[in-house]
Amino acid sequence: MLESGSERRSMTETAYGELKRKILRSELAPGAHFLEEELAVMLGMSRTPVREAAVRLEQEGFLEIVPRRGFRVTRLSKRTVREINEVLECLEIQAAERLAARRIAADDLKLLEDAVARMDVALESEDAQAWAQADYEFHTLLIVLCGNQHLAEVAKNFLDKAHRFRLMTLQLRAKPVYSNVNHAAVVEAVRRNDPQTAQDIHRAHKRRWARELSDLLERLDLPE
Question: What's the pLDDT tens digit per position in 65-89?
Fold first, then answer.
């Protein structure tokens, strides 16, 4: 029986989500090659949705199409990581200011508070994976909740790429206590409708991370 258009789209979304998750977690290692058939077998589905998902991931910069060899997982370079961080620094500082300037809904404020609370719990239990996920959710919320759809669309791809690097380097980083403290302070500034303080705190946070990032890149065997 032929699949309907909606069923095919659903399968493509499933393939896309699963492949992206595996790339972000380095389960599909940077630089690894995969034939279309191999990815289909891995996901337990037909080649068509896998091909469509892979093409989408190629457009987003997570896979590269290699003629007659299928797909290669994109490697991160030091320059790429630095540039991603520079873009997110600009976008997130602007988002923090805009969000604090709005009269945020109580439910939205709670989303931010819950993300910080999960970061605290994860840090206390030394669960690095849980901390990374909560941190990713906080940064995503900061962008999404500021109310600029175009800003959110631009930022999403960069946030995902930054999360990939975050997961790759979890065991190399010092315990990120300062991240939790700074994020909580931004949330408090948002609660008080204090855009200048939100902007200043998040700028300081991003600048500190930029310094830590430079140290991490010096220790990693990544192409320039």
Answer: 888 788 999 999 999 999 999 999 9
Strand order through the sheet with 70-73: 33-34, 70-73, 63-66
Q: How far apart are CA 112 and CA 114, in angstroms?
A: 5
CATH of domain 78-219: 1.20.120.530
> Is pLDDT at 146 greater than 80 in this prediction?
yes
Contact 70, 34 (CB under 8 A): yes
Total-model pTM: 0.88
Neighbours of 185 (CB within 10 A): 18
Residues 131 and 182: their CA atoms lie apart, in Å, by: 14
Percent helix, strand, coil in the chain, to 5, is: 75, 5, 20
pLDDT band at 5 (very low <50, low <70, confident <90, very high): low
pLDDT tens-place string over residues 10-44: 889 999 999 999 999 999 999 999 999 999 999 99
3-state SS, residue 136: helix
3-state SS assignment for residue 204: helix
Domain ranges of the chain: 5-73, 78-219
- Asked whether the domain spanning 78-219 has the same topology as the one spanning 5-73, the reply is no
Q: Which residue has the tokens 């620094």?
A: 89
Q: Which fold has domain 5-73?
A: Arc Repressor Mutant, subunit A (1.10.10)
95's tokens: 């988002």
pLDDT tens readout for residues 110-138? 999 999 999 999 999 999 999 999 999 99
Amino acid code (one letter) for 35: L
